[in-house]
Amino acid sequence: MAVANEGNRRVAEQGCIDRVQHLADAANPAFAAGSLLVPLAFFAASLALGSTELLFYTHVAAGAVWFGFALIFPAVIGPTLGGLDEAAAAAVNRTLIPKAVFFLVGFSLTTVLSGTVLLTPDIGLGYGFGGTWSGLALGLGWGLFAFGLAVPHRLHLSAYYETVSPDPDADRLESIEKKNLVVGLFEGAMMLALIVLMTGFRLG
């Protein structure tokens, strides 16, 4: 156990690339790669085939997964973990968070990339919407993607690294969970705003 704790301490001190490698190993490398490559493969296939329909459904499906998981995590998973004892919650965090990070990055990136192609007039597969609606939707979509990387993912990873540290701080973990709830509510509101913007589109 002492060896494992020392290894976890070193992980927390590593650089970005080493941390990504550690997270991929913790998530299972095949799962991590699949979470990124599978949704992006549909995006690439729609471009290669020149299929606007495939691109549209890729965007809708990836967005539904992204939005759904982003809402479920703080609304359901977080409170559930809060009701477990420390050992059980730590075990779930060690298994769940690395997988969730790769999963959400893959689907959120696919969502914003496919949405950009669909709504950019100068790209061959785009629907060609211009003006305020598409500009706001694209800006909010990329803003949510950047926000996800900068805030929710960082909070999740903070909880993960605290969990695998030699001496986890229960009070800090509880504080992170409270922040996750607030951030999740804000993110959910922004996602609903994006859906409202998308209802302004008229697909011809």
TrEMBL record:
Membrane-spanning residues: 30-49, 56-77, 97-119, 131-151, 181-201
Alphabetical keyword list = Membrane, Transmembrane, Transmembrane helix
| Protein name per Swiss-Prot or TrEMBL | DUF2269 family protein
Which organism does this record belong to? Halorubrum tropicale
